[in-house]
Structure formats: C-alpha cells, structure tokens
Design brief:
Layout: E1 2-6, H1 11-22, H2 34-45, E2 50-57, E3 60-72, E4 75-85, H3 94-108, E5 111-116, H4 123-130
Parallel strand pairs: 4-5
Antiparallel strand pairs: 1-2, 2-3, 3-4
C-alpha cells in the first residue's frame, strides 16, 4: 500500500471514489446535482491549505482523505472533512492502515493533530473511537439554516 498526496489533477479519480462510497450504504447521500458536487470537491482539494491524500493498492485508489491544514497557536493541525475507503475494501483493515499512514505523513511534516467530525449514529463514530480518537467534551458544533431568508422581502 502507498500513501500519495493528491492534487487537482486527480479530481476525476477523487470524485469517482467519493461518489461510490457516499452515495451508497450507510450514507446514501444524494449528489445528483453535479454542479454542487464539483464545487464541493473543488472546495476540498483546490484551496491553498488543502491536503488531500490517497491510499493506493498498486495503481488503484482505495482510500481518500480530503481536508485542510490549519495553523494554530499550539501548532499545525489537519482538519479532515472527508475520509473514506472503497466499499469493496472495507472491513479488511484498510481504514486502520490508511489512518496509520496519514499519521506517519503528518508526523513527518510536523503536523501535530488530526481534527474531524462525525455523527454518533454512523459506523465511522465507532471506527474513530477504536483508533484512539477522543471526543472533545467542551467542543460544540453549531449549525443554523438561513434558507428561510431566501424568500424575497426578508
């Protein structure tokens, strides 16, 4: 297995793996709006702080991590926005090996922490807990919909 840093030039392969994983169980995300999909992928891989890593078995990408680097007072962090393993390779230890390879890459590049978010109700929650990730007790995520403001006159 080999970890490779990916670029915008890898966008087609990135999109293919992303779609195959996240439009199927357990996620079932609806990415039928290709403009939204392309904008999302470019948001993740096309910024100056983006860090996109692929995990390869020979020339086949079987793992993908898309995120960004954040320079923080305590040091540099890697914020993972999306992490996935090809559906046909899940449950075979590939995700664990991929995370270890990511951690080694980050250590070599003096990036001291990984930050990510997931939901408690999805399999990823248990996967991360079993691999040494801890919940931030004092950290809270907020969301607010503003779609009601789209109506003219508000």
């Amino acid at each position: 297995m080999e970890l490779r840093r990916l670029t915008i030039g890898d966008r087609e392969a990135i999109t293919r793996l992303f779609l195959d994983v996240f439009t199927n169980e357990p996620w079932n995300d609806d990415w039928s709006d290709t403009d939204q999909l392309n904008a999302y992928i470019m948001d993740l891989i096309g910024d100056s702080t983006s860090l996109t890593l692929g995990y390869f078995a020979k020339d086949q990408m079987i793992g993908l991590s898309m995120g960004h680097i954040k320079h923080w007072y305590a040091g540099t962090e890697y914020y993972i926005d999306e992490l996935c393993v090809d559906r046909h390779f899940q449950g075979k230890g590939i995700g664990s090996a991929f995370l270890k390879a990511i951690e080694a890459f980050l250590a070599e590049n003096k990036i001291f922490r990984i930050f990510l978010q997931t939901e408690r109700t999805v399999p990823a929650y248990r996967f991360y807990k079993q691999r040494g990730f801890i919940e931030l007790v004092d950290h809270v995520s907020f969301v607010k919909k503003v779609e009601d403001l789209f109506v003219e006159g508000k």
